[in-house]
Amino acid sequence: MASPSLSPAGDGIIRGDAGREEPPSLEDLYHINVFPSELFLKFRKEVQGIRLGLNLEFYNYEGNDYEAKMVLKPLGPDRRWKFIYEPIRGDLRVLSKKIPITRYLNLQVGVGHNYHLNAIGWKWKLSTSLGGDGVSQIRNKTSIGLFPGFDLRIGWKAEYILPEINGSVGAGEPIFNMSYGRLHASIDKVEAILTHES
Predict the structure, then answer these.
(1) How far is Cα 189 from Cα 35, in angstroms, rounded to an integer?
(2) How far apart are CA 192 and CA 38, in angstroms?
(3) What gap in Å lies between CA 130 and CA 106, rounded to an integer?
(4) What are the φ/ψ torsions at residue 196 (nearest 5 degrees)?
(5) 121-145, pLDDT tens digit by residue?
(6) Domain spans of the chain?
(7) pTM, to two decimals
(8) End-to-end CA separation in angstroms for the chain
């Protein structure tokens, strides 16, 4: 007797050898990863309306990859730019703030110079907090102020397929069919932010 398998449609329904549907176990329906894939340490100094930051970024634990960045940007809600220097990559960039195009879509543009390649170029990026196929992914950041001058920012994402109930009559398909949906959630990034205000 063949063992049950996840249906090819990926609908979260487990089908047995006779085609009958069996409800999946909870392990098949959700997966939550609480070990972050990126860890950032950020040191900030605020002086006369300007924030100077040093970011130490650690990611890809298998390869022990890391990056250092120096960030300079004005404070206040009307800030329009930020300056980034990455000494390891040799990148020097000026980026605009995220410009809202629609309620969920932002555009960011920038110009930069790479010392290693001796090249000047510009970049643009469209970003959103929603994504995936059929709006099946949510990305967000949650900030926690532990005490004055020290904050934790946690970047997380959730990929999901919503449960669905359907059926048919006279079409050679079941009268009642249910897909249990699926959820995969993970913590992608943890940022420890130390801020010194003059």
Answers:
(1) 9
(2) 11
(3) 11
(4) -115, 115
(5) 888 887 765 544 334 677 788 898 8
(6) 25-197
(7) 0.57
(8) 73
